[in-house]
Design brief:
Order of helices and strands: EEHHHHHHHHHH
Helix content: 40-55%
Strand order of the largest sheet: 1-2
Shape: globular
Radius of gyration: 18 Å
Low-confidence stretches: 1-26
Number of helices: 10
Distance between the termini: 59 Å
Number of strands: 2
Structural class: mainly alpha
Strand content: under 5%
């Protein structure tokens, strides 16, 4: 059986894997063979590198996309993001492409079926939370919807970290989002998990200053230098 749930710090990606060619205690970036600067975690694994370059931090403004990411962040608690990313195709197959309407109809037999699926994280509490979160997502449509609720917690500014140690793991906005979601019936949505969500879907930009992805979301464009 998989580990018990914790609301552990989760950048979505794995924590810093350690020194690399251009990485030291105060340096969070690695210049890869393609000449692009990335954080060390994104240079350590081809799958993580593609995820970093093409998805992490880009805006997600559709209900299904946000529901999926809330579920995956919940499943990630206590595990590495690389583990979840490798299992993502199996998760999508098991949870009907994370269609909230379909998953909201899952019953006890479906939970037992999922507990027997070796392709996903077989944790009863997390599986039941994913089903409950689907029902909460559907219910939210009568009051603005999941997208409006999540994006209403966008802060007035975003961090500008130059080292991994400068990246927050929670914020007043993530605490408020966690509280709002819990009030609507969502589970596995603690403040650190929700900060990881906010990073992953572009609500905050915690790409390190100097990374080739910094400011790429369009939500938080980097200011142009003065002439």
């Amino acid at each position: 059986m998989d580990p018990a749930p914790v609301d552990a710090p989760s950048l979505s990606p794995d924590p810093d894997p350690g020194p690399g060619p251009d990485h030291g205690p105060d340096h969070g970036l690695v210049v890869d063979e393609d000449g692009l600067a990335r954080p060390a975690w994104a240079a350590s694994d081809p799958l993580l590198r593609v995820y970093y370059d093409t998805e992490w931090g880009l805006p997600v403004r559709d209900e299904r996309g946000l529901y999926e990411r809330i579920c995956l962040e919940g499943f990630q608690a206590g595990l590495s993001w690389a583990t979840i990313l490798r299992k993502r195709p199996a998760f999508r197959a098991a949870f009907a492409g994370f269609d909230p309407d379909v998953v909201a109809g899952f019953g006890a037999q479906d939970v037992e079926r999922l507990l027997g699926d070796p392709g996903i994280v077989r944790h009863r509490g997390k599986i039941e939370a994913a089903v409950g979160n689907a029902r909460a997502t559907v219910a939210l449509r009568a009051d603005g919807g999941l997208v409006e609720l999540v994006w209403s917690h966008r802060p007035a500014g975003t961090p500008s970290p130059r080292a991994l140690a400068e990246i927050p793991t929670r914020s007043p906005e993530s605490e408020a989002l966690a509280k709002a979601l819990r009030a609507r019936g969502f589970r596995f949505v603690g403040p650190t998990t929700m900060y990881a969500l906010m990073e992953a879907v572009g609500i905050v930009d915690t790409h390190l200053v100097g990374s080739h992805r910094r400011g790429s979301s369009g939500v938080w464009p980097e200011p142009r230098p003065r002439a």
